């Protein structure tokens, strides 16, 4: 039974109600020795407590998009594959231009909570060895006759950890917010791309390539981008790509953009952090060498030349704002870092209300970094 489905949610409610009714109906009817009666009554109380906790968990999970499946929840899902050593480039020395075009089959997502127009495919990464679902939303303009020869820019969306790619559509309602903004001309019509980021069950891959363990970096920056370019009117030009994330995804967005200015020209970090050790389950945060090499501030300052990337960092205090200020102080042209203070804590509704500003900011930055599609 699907962890996030309405059927399971309804079942948890039924069980919780039954757990309340049963003690009233059976408490005085339990027979046998005193020890047996006490045991049965204790079990009824425990059953009521467990079902109540389960209902709350399912509600929180559905509201925040934490886990997609039982495998993710129990830490048994492994989407990383063999994770070969791909070297510094993250491509294993292969040129994307020489790889065959990969045609994917997309199906409309049958989930009213995700809104209309979201497509889903299962991608097997030809470079990274990872695999998983990728959600794509095409703006209405994509299929209009007036734009049949237009190319569109793409925004890759990263959730927190634990986190589901579906949260951008189910919880953040990103396409519903973009509709009026696109119609008003304030925001460009983007192709939205939300790939799986939980590749190792209960472990945070840290958006890194760790040979023999996971190639999360190449999955997101090479395989997913190439697949989108192969199947939609989107180029691989970095001026046509940005990456946005919240919490752990904000860390990933900033790090991937600074590390790969040849793949992204802009990024948005919503309540992100610089030091990967800020996430307790981060593989890069637990290893001293990986922690240093994947710290966002170090990625920026150790670049041979300042990356041609624009970053918007938002947050409150140490939760995104102060890390953003550190990046702004270290940035040298052509790197641009804007820091925006928020309030309300580390919460989904805070990031949700930042979407209009963030996408309007991206439109300005991407227009300046490259050409306007059309």
Order of helices and strands: HHHEEEEHHEEEHEHEHHHEHEH
With helices defined by DSSP (H or I, 4 residues minimum), what is the helix count? 12
Low-pLDDT residue intervals, each spanning 5 or more residues: none
Q: What is the name of the CATH superfamily of the largest domain? A: Alpha/Beta hydrolase fold, catalytic domain
In CATH terms, what is the fold-level topology of the largest domain? Rossmann fold
Structural category is alpha/beta
What's the oligomerization state? Answer: single chain
Total strand segments: 11
Helix content: 25-40%
Q: Which CATH architecture of the largest domain would you pick? A: 3-Layer(aba) Sandwich
Instruction: Specify the overall morphology.
Output: globular
Number of domains: 2
In short:
This protein has helices at residues 6-26, 34-64, 70-74, 167-170, 174-184, 216-231, 248-259, 283-286, 288-293, 296-301, 321-330, 348-369; strands spanning 107-108, 118-124, 131-137, 154-158, 191-195, 209-210, 214-215, 241-246, 266-270, 310-315, 336-341. With 374 residues, it is an alpha/beta fold.
How does this structure look, described?
- GO terms for molecular function: hydrolase activity.
- Keywords: Hydrolase, Membrane, Transmembrane, Transmembrane helix.
- It comes from Streptomyces albipurpureus.
- The protein has two domains: 6-58; 80-369, Alpha/Beta hydrolase fold, catalytic domain (Rossmann fold, 3-Layer(aba) Sandwich), CATH 3.40.50.
- Helices cover 40% and strands 14% of the residues.
- It has helices at residues 6-26, 34-64, 70-74, 167-170, 174-184, 216-231, 248-259, 283-286, 288-293, 296-301, 321-330, 348-369; strands at residues 107-108, 118-124, 131-137, 154-158, 191-195, 209-210, 214-215, 241-246, 266-270, 310-315, 336-341.
- The strands form two sheets. It has a nine-stranded mixed sheet with strand order 1-2-3-5-4-8-9-10-11, sandwiched between helices.
- Helix 11 links the parallel strand 10 (310-315) and strand 11 (336-341).
